[in-house]
User: What shape does this take?
Amino acid sequence: MTTSLSDAEYFAHIARKISSAGCIIRDDAGRLLVANPTYKPGWEVPGGVCEAGEAPRATATREVREELGLYLKIGRALCVDHTTGIESQPDALHFLFDGGVVSDGTIGAFRLPPDELSVRIPRHPVSNRCHQMIQRRR
Assistant: This one.
């Protein structure tokens, strides 16, 4: 005889993952715009963690606005990736969207939050400066 679980019992036992969303934004020369957060190691594309009930595209839009002071029409989804939790971090789904190309003038006008971001576009290979979780995907 099978017993059925209530919704609360069922959802209490299934895997939970956090979600994040970011944007690939390029300058006029085709270089990838990355940020160096001051509150954690590694370079990342603009983006962040999805808030409760927030769609990934909305997260990417909000994070670009908060981090760069830029209102972008976020383009199509480029990829979705999964990372297995390490140490105290849970498993996560990462959504990456096309943020398009922004002019050098627009990049120069970014309003970076000084307590969060310190660098906008590196003039050297990005791969050597990416967070270890991104490097593992190469």
Summary: The longest strand covers residues 92-101. The radius of gyration is 18 Å.
